[in-house]
């Protein structure tokens, strides 16, 4: 039963790793303590693929409760915990994903890595081939 | 994630849709007009086909300035417009019923060195390729521990991975029930890991290096040579310009095996980028869980590195260079065996040095994205020394391959062709010593018996024509003619047809021939770990086979999510095969040509269904029927160790944004025939084989893995063989490994039972 023991050991390792990182991981549900605030960023996102990318990137940011991108208006609405993050941090996160955040331009390398359809040279499009 | 209907037509794309201007209601609905351009050069694209998704018969072709006019379908709702051109990724857009639309669409080139490239988000079964292609994505690869290529196929039903023997731990892939040697393995679309590297090749590519894997069943293109018989497995390594800046992976399991992987990539300028892929693994613990006195897995240490460069000019020139080096040592056998002091213990050792390099250069004519010229060069040096008990087997293979490839169109992009020349230089030197010295044999005779050299020089030419009517029919016909210095002319015809009965129903046919030179010792290296003597006929001829088959793919929706059903059947028939016969005489492995009047064939039927019943939950189930038989000494018998029936099921669940991912895979294997134990002739007398075959029992395996993703870090833990199933006696005659009954080659099940592992991946984009 040696392997069984090591299985639980490894399981414990994973759980503890999870615990260690819980502080940096965003919480999925709005918690009672700490109010939630909202703010909006105008981005350079142009399609549903951008939407999926940005919303996923936001989901992995500390203090973000919810993020929603409205593709036609290119506006990203973020609900966040002000005790955990700031709008400036989140704007940087948007840039690092490859998109402009308000008047700040996207990080060059991240932008390069975007699929062609997500590039700024495209106009906003509602192509269905992006899901 | 399976994209739905129109999405499959449009892979990814630079699309500019000038928003339609709503116009006053008129009684006459104007036709849709527009212009199609090339996304890279923004030049007009003549010959592109524009059609309605719902009314496939109405189509228009763009003129010399890329413009088209297309009448609308006769219904009120919005319609989907499909734009396609060969050499480009198709695109789909929605046009309102009465919009006075002028659309401008920039199509993205799909040409990556003349090969159609499959996007990261393509469905598992592509609807675009003319061949029956299944894609394993990066995301699929993270479903299993993925130390190396062998584990990459764990969550896939098409390819089977089997262990060659209970001592060396070498793993082999099988396609259509045929050994790995019959499927062509390509890395970045260049033939790789051929010949003498076959036995251990799956461990030569680390899972973290791999961007994706394309599995093509049946006959593929003639461009990659005449060798593939059962199919092709193409491994795409990470691209220097697209890969993560840093990816670090560490893995450990409870046998004591560790893996470390580090990928680094950097753009050096706007045009030049590089990636460095590093891998090391080590197993230093002697484990013998089944108490048979033999290590369950050999001690092994591997250092492996690959460096890839990519140059992309703005003017259509793309160059890629890759350089790789590998060093591996393995040591298996009895627990008390030490290579420096073998005493009376049985042991196996293997030391491998491998160097590879490739250079691919392609030039695409400006304004003519369908026309390109490519030069593909690759070279490999593979040298190994191995010892199996008293036998030794050393080898060196030096291969060089050059291919010049030109691609263009005939009139319109409906007719494309590829022409090329190739030259293969393949030099083999093998030394096999069975450990015996026969007094009657002269030194010269002995030298000739033990040394097997082969030098192949094969110039060849090929042509491939593709017809695509942009609606529902694709036809690829290829022919190649090679002049083999040892076997004279080799003609290889191949044909692939894809027909879309409806946009959601795809039929494919593939047929053609294949040719290869067998490397009988390397391909039967598992049998070296038994007391069977190798008896090689000295008139071995090359292997020739034809293969014909087809597939039926149906896309549909279940609970609002896309689902796929695939069924395929392939028949492979050998005109000649180098047959390794362990049935006829238990004490020897007779290797010779397929006997006159004998048959050797494989019939493979597979059906698979993939569904997503709830968002995030993906399930697939597959059934496979394999009938692989060969005439051995006048008797048509099933191939040893190949199960006739096999079931596969996989359930995967991912929470929103993939923060948690869980996977459970079930594999069930039916009975499989076994070769007779080499010691069994004592009971039956006179070396004649027993007349009935023994079969291994049915069994099932369960694997599971859970992954937790954080912003830059992923942590995973998994269990292979959850139920701890083991083959009771994987090594027959383990107590006297130099005796007549010793056989570690009849491995049909797991030897070391349950395996628990954990690992992490750290990534900086």
TrEMBL record, chain A:
Keywords for the protein's UniProt record, in alphabetical order: Signal
Signal peptide: 1-22
Record-linked PROSITE patterns: HMA_2
Domain of life: Bacteria
Pfam families the UniProt entry points to: HMA (PF00403)
Residues of the HMA domain: 36-102
CDD domains, per the entry: HMA
GO molecular function: metal ion binding
InterPro entries: HMA_dom (IPR006121), HMA_dom_sf (IPR036163)
Gene3D superfamilies: 3.30.70.100
Protein name, entry field: Copper chaperone
Automatic annotation (TrEMBL), chain B:
InterPro entries per the UniProt record, alphabetical: Beta-barrel_TonB, Beta-barrel_TonB_sf, CarboxyPept-like_regulatory, Plug_dom, Plug_dom_sf, TonB-dep_rcpt-like
Leader sequence residues: 1-24
Subcellular location: Cell outer membrane
Pfam family membership, one: Plug
Keyword Transport (UniProt): yes
Record-linked Gene3D superfamilies: Carboxypeptidase-like, regulatory domain (2.60.40.1120), TonB-dependent receptor, beta-barrel domain (2.40.170.20), TonB-dependent receptor, plug domain (2.170.130.10)
UniProt GO BP: siderophore transmembrane transport
First-listed, main subcellular location of the protein, grouped into a coarse class: membrane
Topology with respect to the bilayer: Multi-pass membrane protein
PROSITE patterns cross-referenced by the UniProt entry: TONB_DEPENDENT_REC_3
Gene Ontology annotations for the cellular component aspect, listed alphabetically: cell outer membrane
Residue intervals of the TonB-dependent receptor plug domain: 129-231
Keywords associated with the record: Cell outer membrane, Membrane, Receptor, Signal, TonB box, Transmembrane, Transmembrane beta strand, Transport
GO molecular function: siderophore uptake transmembrane transporter activity
TonB-dependent receptor-like beta-barrel domain residues: 304-722
PANTHER family tied to this protein: HEMOGLOBIN AND HEMOGLOBIN-HAPTOGLOBIN-BINDING PROTEIN 1-RELATED, TONB-DEPENDENT OUTER MEMBRANE RECEPTOR
Family, per entry: Belongs to the TonB-dependent receptor family.
Protein name: TonB-dependent receptor
Organism: Hymenobacter metallicola
